[in-house]
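Hello everyone,

My group is preparing for a crystallization screen and wants a predicted model to guide construct design. The compound we'll soak is fe (ii) ion. Before spending weeks at the bench, it would help to have a computed complex in hand. I've included the protein sequence and the ligand's SMILES below. Output in C-alpha cell form would be ideal because that's what our pipeline reads.
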Amino acid sequence: MFTIKKVDAALGATVENLDLTAPLQETDIAELKWALAEYQVLFFRDQDISYRNHQEFGIAFGSLQRHPSYPAIDEFPEIMILENDRENPSKIDEWHTDMSFKAMPPLGSILIGRVVPDNRGDTMFSNLAAAYEDLPGSLKRSLEGMTATHSFAYGFKESIAEPGGRERLKDAINNNPDVVHPVIRTHPVTGRKLIFLNRLFTRKIDGLSERKSNDLLNSLCDHMVQDKYVYRFNWRKNSIAFWDNRSVLHVPVNDYWPALRRMERVTINDTLAPA
Ligand SMILES: [Fe+2]
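Reply:
Good plan to model first. Here are the C-alpha cells for the complex, ready for your pipeline.
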C-alpha cells in the first residue's frame, strides 16, 4: 500500500511506494482522488513511466483533453509537450489556473519532468481556499455573486502579437471565445470556498469600471500568492506533479534559460463547471 505524506506547507503531499508503470486498483484511484482534493497537489518521484502509462494514469481520473495551441506527442495527442530552450524561452510567467478560458476548465493536470535543469525551473503552487478563508468578511460578502471574464486571447496575447501569431492561433482564438466564471467558487469535493481568478487568463471582473476591476483583480491576485499560501516544488527527472486545477494557482520559475527543460502533461476534463 502506498503512503501519502502532507508536505510542511500550505498545500501539497508526496505519494510514496506507488509504481505508476503498473495498473492502479480502484481503491488506489479512490484514495488518490480524495487526496488530490484534500492536499490540492500530489508529488511523485522517480516515475520512469511510458507515454501509455502517463495517458492511463490520467484516464483513471477522467477523460483527457487536448490543448488548442501547444504541441503534443504524435501517437499520444493528449500528451502535451512543454519544452523550452535557448531558442524558445518560456513565455508563461504569470500565476494561473490551466485553461480557465474554457467554460469547463480542467479538473487537474499531471505534469512529468523529462529533462530538468539542476535545481532550476521549479513550479510554485498556491492554495486558493486558504487565501479565501483569510479575506475580511465584508470583502467575502461583496465578492459573493460576482463574476469574471476569462480569455484565451488575453492569456496568449504575447504569442498572438508575434509575427504570424494571430494567423497561427486563429482557430484557437475562434474556438475559445471569452467565458464567465464566478469569482468565488465552491470545491465540489471538499465544499471549501475559494477565489477563482488568475492573472494570466482573467481579463476583468464583470460589472466594474476598468479601473476598479484592475484594482480588485490586482489586489486579490497579490493576496493569493503570498508565501504563506505557497509551496515551491523542486523537479528532478521523472518527478510528477498532479494538481487540482479547481483549487490551486501555479507558475513556473523561469530561471533556467538557456538550459533545456522538457515537461509532458496530460490534462483531465472536469464534469462540472465552476459554481
Ligand atoms: Fe500551467
